[in-house]
Amino acid sequence: MFFALMRKEIIAHVLSLRFGVTFALFLLLVFASIYVTTNEYRRDQDEAFAVDRAADADLRKIFTEEEKVEDRFYAVFYHHGRREAVPPPPMSSLVQGLRPAMPAAVQITPGNSRYVGRSIEGNPLAGLLPIPDLVYVVGIVLSLLAILFAFDSICGEKEAGTLRLIMSNAVPRDSILLAKWAAGFLVLLVPFLIAVFGGVVYTWYVGALPTDADTLARLGTLLGFACLYISTFFTLSLAVSAVTHRSSTSLFLCLLIWVVWILVIPNLAPVVAKIIEPGYSPLKIAQEKEAVYREIHLRIQRLTLTTGKVSYGKGIEEEKEKLERERTRRLEQWDRFQSDSIDRQKRLAGIFGRLSPAACWTYAAVAVAGTGAESYQAFENASKQMSDDMRKTAESIRPPPQRDVRDFTLDELPRLKLTSVPFARAAEPAVNDLLILAILNVAFFMTAFVCFLRYDVR
Question: From CA 304, how far away is CA 394, in angstroms rounded?
Fold first, then answer.
């Protein structure tokens, strides 16, 4: 009986105009998004290669054409440093994540580091219109298609009179509901998987996606999350259809929930977090740190006036060291305050954002793909490590040199050691999002089940 009901539902879906439109949109939107992000990934790879090649050429000019006079060589090296391109994460060909927010390259000298932003000369609208990657298409478009596919599963059949005809036979209501869910979700899922498979094959064919075990695990987990996310909105529509008795009412409620979940909550979450935990702006932190610098500097200058001792005495030197330690401690306190404030804002935004399945899907997808906050933190750590290594290298060739500068080679300059976050550690933050989506699916299905048991089919 159950499989007969499923067969009836599948045939009804496949022969409908809705299925044809949905299938075409799935193929067009999913494959188009993967095609766009894949070509964007290849362009970033080419730019990274060009940046590294140009930077190495500049350094070779310094090491070969410039006269290696010790003072001049050190001055050129100190002010020039090294420019390193920031390569795109491997999975950014499917999931952009924070990749657009990362710099194209870093210019690191022994004195400081500077991020080189991305150019939008090729397309003036690149900074205005976001790239529709797989997360965007699944999160917004496919969730809406899932709603439009199931909002009248029960109330629509009641209006047409077919539900009363089915219930006139000795058919259990739980079998009818389960068949509607299984058949509808299967028909919705097959076009999505076909489109994703075609897009991934294209990505592999052009060499924009590795084929190692780590990438396959990430890809499989990402597709599993996508299916669970689509199921959330499909089951929601089924539950609303079992609560209402008119298709128009069901569609209105489903669209209202979709707008709140997709547009309102994810966009309001960072704003609410900043209101609750305002913190200080970067400009305010810089002003406070500058005030600490000035205060300690004035206190050091006043030492000789207040103590009556000469500025180079032992007691004065000890007081200077004490004041410098105090300055360092107070500056570190401001840095920790800023870092803790940002961390609290991120935690609050994550908590409020997870009231929406769309935010859960986005957080889980970028975490699994390795293009989220963990990836950005790994880049910052690598940049800081390269800056420290550059400073140590500068100390080793500072004139008068500890060795002959002419023996120093280009290969001895530090490089940006950027490593991807392992899959096991990257997937840990996604466990909570997985549980939230699973709980929502169970809750919506149980709501549909309880309501359908008492549903008036007349």
Answer: 35
Predicted structure pTM score: 0.82
Listed in sequence order, the DSSP H helices in 81-138 are 134-136
The pLDDT, as a whole number, for residue 206 is 87
* C-alpha radius of gyration, the chain, whole number: 30
| DSSP codes joined into one string, 132-174 | --HHHIIIIIIHHHHHHHHTTTTHHHHHHTHHHHHHTSS--HH
- How big is the chain, counted in residues? 458
| Residue that has been written with the tokens 């205005």 in this structure | 128
Tokens 């929601």 correspond to: 236
3-state secondary structure of 410: helix
Q: Which is nearest to 82 in space by CA: 399, 394, 404?
A: 394
pLDDT value of position 254: 92
Read off the pLDDT of residues 169-210 as tens digits, 9 standing for 90 and up: 777 888 888 888 998 899 888 888 988 998 899 999 888 888
- Return d(Cα 240, Cα 24) in angstroms, integer: 26
Residue 84 backbone phi and psi in degrees, to 5:
-125, 130
Question: Quick check: 430 and 97 in contact, CB under 8 A?
Answer: no
Strands 105-108 and 82-85: antiparallel
In contact, 25 and 141? CB cutoff 8 Å: yes
Measured in degrees and rounded to the nearest 5, phi and psi for residue 142 equal -70, -30
How many C-beta atoms surround the C-beta of residue 427 within 10 A? Answer: 19
**CB burial string 150-177: b at 16+ within 10 A, e below:** bbbbbbbbbeeeebeeebeeeeeeeebb
**Are 106 and 383 a contacting pair, CB within 8 Å?**
yes
Pairing outcome for strands 105-108 and 113-116:
antiparallel
Please return the burial class of 379, using the count of CB atoms within 10 Å of its CB with bins 0-12, 13-18 and 19+: buried
